[in-house]
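Standup notes
- DV: blocked on the single-chain target, sequence here:
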Amino acid sequence: MRIEIPKGAKFILDSLNEAGFTGYVVGGCVRDACLGIKPHDWDITTSARPEQVKALFRKTIDTGLKHGTVTVLTDRNLSTDGISSFEVTTYRLDGEYEDHRRPAQVTFADRIEDDLSRRDFTINAMAYSETEGLVDCFGGQEDLSKGVVRCVGNPDERFSEDALRILRAVRFAAKLGFSIDEATIESIKSHAEDLRFISAERIREELTKLLCSPHPEMIRNAYEYGLTKVFLPEFDKCMETAQNNPYHRYSVGEHTIKVLENIPPEVHLRYTALLHDIDKPTVKTTDKNGIDHFYGHAGVGAETAADILKRLKFDNDTIRRVSRLVKWHDFGVGPMPNEKTMRRFLAKLGPDNYEDYLAIKRADMAGQSDYRADEKQAVLKEIMKMHDSIMSRGDCLSLKELALSGNDLMKLGIPEGRKLGECLQKLFDMVLSDPSLNTRDKLTEIVKNI
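- DV (later): unblocked, structure below
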C-alpha cells in the first residue's frame, strides 16, 4: 500500500536517509492512513540519535531528549495543511516500569522492529516509508481489517508497563468502533486497579476522548471491565440503580448511556450527559406503590458533578458550565411553566446556555420511556415558544440589563454596600415578574417609595 506523506515529513525522512540513517512515519498516523482517515499528527521514528537529528535540521526543539524525542520545525513552503512541526524519536527499548506509568530508563535501539515491539496495540505498532513500504511485525493491518484492538505481545506486560493503556484500549475501540481481543479484555480486568497509579489529568484525557468518540456507549465496557470503579465509582452506582417509574425504561446508568448517544460530541455536553443523573442513587425513594422517585437529584447532582470534575482536574469554566446544566436540566418537568417562571429560569441558567439546555433536554427525553411522551414534547415546544417571545422583546434577564445601575441608586440615596445589593436584587426580582417595570422612571419611583 502507499501512504501520502506530508511534504514536511517527507523532507525529514529524505534528509535522514541521505545522512545514512533510516526513518519512518509511525503509530497513529499510519493506523489512520490505513483506515482512510486523514491523520492530524505525523510522528517519525529513526535510527539517528537525538544529537544527530539536531545536527541535521536548522530548527529543532528539545522536546524530550531523555526519551529520544526532538521536534523538528520545517519551513512554511513544506507545510501541508498547516503541519510544520514533527516529533522525531530515536528507536528505543523501554527499561523496567517501576510505577505503572513510565520506564525508569530507555535504551536506544538500531532496528525499527525493536521500537515497534514496545508499543501498546498492534494497530499502533506499524511504520511506513516510501522506500520500504509498510512495516507490520505484529499483525496490525490484519487487526485493522478485523476491527480488533489487541495488545502487542503479552497484554499483562503491556498493561504492567503503563496502566493508562487499560483505558486507552477502550478509548480506541470507541473511537474506531472496534471490538477488543478476548485475551486483552481478560488482562484489562485483572489490571484495572493499576489505574490508581495514573494521574487524574491522564485519566481525564482518555475519558474525554472516549466520551466524545462516535461510540460513547463504550463507557459501559469500562464499567464491565472494572475501570470506572477506580476513577468514577459514582457511575457504577448509577449502573446498579433501577428506575421503577413509568417515565423510565432503563436503569439510571443505561439511561445515562442513551443520553450520551443522543447529545452532540462537545466536551461540556457529553460530561453533562454523563453526570446529569449522577445523584439519583443517593436520593432514591420508593413509595407504597413500589414507584421509585428521585426528588431533588438535579440540585444535589450539580454539587457532585462539580466535585467529580474537580477530581479530574477540569478547568473552572467547564466545571461551572456542566454543573449549571446538571442543576437545571430538569426544568420543564411537572406543571407547564409560564413566562414569569421562564424568565427566572433563564436568569439563573444564563441565556447563553439555553441551546445547551435544549440539547440535554432532548437527549434526556430520548433516553426515557414513551409514557406521556406527547405531553413532554408539548411542554418543550411551549418552553421554546416562550423563550423566543422573551428574547424578541428584550426582557431583562440580568442585573446589568436593569434600567437603573448601582451608581443610579447611590444618587437616589441608597448607601453603597449590602443595602445597595439588596435593592438591586429586589428591583431585578420585580422586573423578572413584570418586564414593563424596567424603565428609569418606573424604577426610580419604586426606589423613592422604598
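- Follow-up: The radius of gyration is 28 Å.
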